[in-house]
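debug: dumping io for the single-chain case to check the tokenizer round-trip. Nothing else runs in this session.
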Amino acid sequence: MKGQEIREKFLAFFEQKGHTIIPPASLIPIDDPSLLWINSGVATLKKYFDGREVPPNPRLVNVQKSIRTNDIENVGKTARHHTLFEMLGNFSIGDYFKREAILWAWEFLTERRWIGFDPDRLSVTIHPEDDEAYEIWRREIGLPDARIIRLEGNFWDIGEGPSGPNSEIFYDRGPAYGDDPNDPELYPGGENERYLEIWNLVFSQFNHNPDGTYTPLPSKNIDTGMGLERMASILQDGETNFDTDLFLPIIRLTESLSGVQYRSARETDIAFRVVADHIRALAFAVGDGALPSNEGRGYVLRRLLRRAVRYGRKLGFDRPFLYRLVPAVGEIMGAFYPEIPSREAHIADVVRREEERFYERLDEGMRLIEETIAKAKREGRAMITGEEAFVLYDTYGFPLDLTEDMATEHGLAVDREGFEQAMAKQRERARSARGAVDSMQVQGGELRDFVAESRFVGYERLIVPDARVIGLFVDGRRVESLAAGEEGLVFLDVTPFYAESGGQIADRGVLVAASEGDAPEGVRGSARDTFRAEVLDVTKAPHGQHAHRVRVVRGTLRVGDVVRAEVDAADRADVIKNHTATHLLHQALRDVLGPHVSQAGSLVAPDRLRFDFSHYGPLAPSEVERIERIVNEKIWQAIPVEWFYKPLDEAKAMGAMALFGEKYGEIVRVVRVGDYSLELCGGCHVTNTLEIGLFKITGESGIGAGVRRIEAVTGRYAYAYVTELLKILAAAAESLKAQPVEVPAKLEGLKEMLRDKERENERLKDKLARYEALELWDQARKIGEMTVLTARVDVPDMDALRKLLDELKASTTGQSGAVIVLGAESGGRALFAASVSSDLVQKGIHAGQLLKKVAAIAGGSGGGRPEMAQAGGRHAEKLDEALQAVFTFLG
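debug: decoded output
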């Protein structure tokens, strides 16, 4: 059974059981800084499990691509470790529980029309105290006691949050994979290759509290996970997960490119598997918008690629090859993940660029690693120092993990602590993109149970004169009223206030008493005439209603009151200019930089906009200028802006851009700007681009791994920004006594004048150095036929010291029979430079050997040619002593 068929059957089975299919999410987490990557099927559903949102259906099923790199050193060396893998899962949020989860798992695995496993080959593990699960497996499924193993480790717990016992299902691959009765690990759940875990059923029934105690959850949940790669290996009778249709096409193409045969030697087999695994992870991650870099998830990609390249060398590759495997990944996965073949050119281009960059340094770096390992062995060390590892990382781009891999192969360790210390001294770098955010906490209470309907009408109007208060909450609890000075959440039956989403900030405004003319018949004056509350923020509640956070300024607000809800019209007018401008900017970026550009985040505020997007590197000034010009041209073309609703598939067929990984309903709102931009968007917009007025980019920067940021202003804020720049220009012109248009030329003239002065200063310095050099000869002493000059001089660095030495050598006195040793202090270190005239070199005086002895006194080392040498020392306080020793060494 092929991998795609396994996916299709799993989804179809649970769809028949009333589950809603959740499409696979992007590997890059959205609104979850606790994760670097999506690492499981349940990771994309946290908002449902923790109560932030109510799911469209309490029964869900998905097939989710995931990345984990905690065991990267084992990938390729074992049968089942992977970086990228697919998790098949069915989930219940407060609906069914253990009985259904177990019965349906058994049905799917054993029924012939689904998987059709022989029931006698299946065993399970349970928690020792989970008698409920035992009874279901024993009484209803009919498993014998011998195939129900109680294990203490069968308890799923991530710390604070939902937790509970779990039951794992194992498949017996037969005695060919283990038949030693004396093997203590030969049982389901033990460390062996015979009994493969194929499905984990987690029964989430407790909350792990901050104090370490466990209390029952108000609603019990089911979270299951089945590894697609393992299932494929069993159903395709593959010895390992790599011997399946999920990997073999990549391996076959690698065979063709390398001329090496898979399954011919263990070392090359490992290389084939590493390459196949890592190119899958790279293709999916880059396809989802990640790019290689030196931090966060970008560092993970760089590490994966460089590890794959190193193993590729074992197959004979000495030039970029990984990018040529990308089409094979699309061939395998494209039926379920169409983004891979559709973005194939972009993925291959990113991989090729990164390979080329690495190959430029690889040969030299590999040679240095091998030399470092050989040196450690010669010196009898069992460890590569942290400083050595850091030089490989900082100079040659070798990740620490790669150095550790090679060291391990030679029986050596790496001083990781020393590496971290060297890193801290050299540069300050973000170690991780993870935020200090709790990964999953149980929320809910009365707010989660609040299901009253609320309707948003803010696209059409900014004032609702007769909005009825349908709910009031303080700290998640329902209240009947809010008095002056109090803050709380207000729910209205109809609201014009936009709730923050899609990057657009929430509306602000006021709730005031409805006038008698506004209030519906029978409820006049239901909010006291003196009532007023400020709307500070608006968010979406678990059931999607708009929750208004308000501060009551005067009067009292009660459930059932009718109020006038009024959005701050000036703020909204500025916001909609910026939001439509982001759509124009998005398309302009794609026009200028290429179709790989995808949105990675945004902020739409009244006074500015911010747009984050995926791209390889900094934008050239000419690119920024062109992008800004395109956006303004579209503004001045007075293009109509319209929005309408369409089924999701139809909208995508029209070419509407979507935020990749974002969840959309069956019906979506589409915003169209003429024939230039078409996006799925729930935000607020102008009706014509001319309303934006002016667009000015105020900044372009990098904010992380392959993500760039453009900041800009529009409308009156763009006018204010330009006006301020003109004021600065006018001030500069006044200082230069020039017209504004003459400022650039004036500045160029000043720069050229400055360069002339600097050149003149250099000439004067050279002249002064020659005079000083001649004066230094007055300090020279005779030792036999030699003229020996030692001097401590005041120069900033080694370059200046060498220059002074050259001046002394060039002087008449220094042509023959001369030894010169100069010393200087710089940055707390001692610097030395020495010269020996050619006639003395012929008599055996060696500048390098002499300076080596001198530098040793100052705690350093050095050397060089017989006629010229330089050195350094750690102890600047011994500089004079070292210079004085020259006479001793030559005497």
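debug: round-trip ok. The longest helix spans residues 344-378.
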